[in-house]
Amino acid sequence: MKQAIIALTAIATLLILADCHSFALAHELSSGGTESGIAACYSRQLAGHRTSSGKRYNPNALTAAHPTIPLGTKVKLTNLENGRSTVVTVDDRLSAHAGDIIIDISRRACKDLEFPQGGEAKVKLEVLPQRT
Questions:
Q1: Which domain holds residue 75?
Q2: I need a surface site. Which of 29, 85, 92, 95 has the fewest CB within 10 A?
Q3: Smallest Cα–Cα separation from 91: which of 124, 59, 66, 108?
Q4: Total structural domains in the chain?
């Protein structure tokens, strides 16, 4: 019984620490921060499915999924391999199982950034100021 309580306490502590890290990252990025990593193109099979914002995914719109940036936020993405950039609106959540991928982007955004055939590229993500 004592070992079970210790294990549950350890798990609870890890969950709290993970949540604090997510909150700090979300605050940093929602305050005009930057992030670099791998971006991937949304699957074609998701066309028409509802996003976290309630809108249907449109491959021809400039939209993205990110784990923590607030929905509705505009983000400038720059392809670090060719210098091309575009602005997308975060309207969905990226799965916690995305591995090294920091953001999923629409087919249109992938085309604008001239992603390679595999549909992934290293990008710089810049959160744009909110208009009031």
A1: 2-127
A2: 95
A3: 66
A4: 1
H-type alpha helices, 1-132: 2-30, 107-112
The bridge status of strand 63-65 relative to strand 85-92 is parallel
Residue 132 lies in a domain: no
Joined together, the tokens standing for residue 72 give: 């509705």
Q: Flag whether 19 is in a domain.
A: yes
Interatomic CA distance for residues 91 and 88, integer angstroms: 9
* Whole-number Å distance between alpha carbons of 130 and 132: 6
CATH of the domain at 15: 2.40.40.10
pLDDT tens for 76-119 read: 999 999 999 999 999 999 877 678 899 999 999 999 999 988 78
CA 72 to chain centre: 12
pTM beyond 0.85: the answer is no
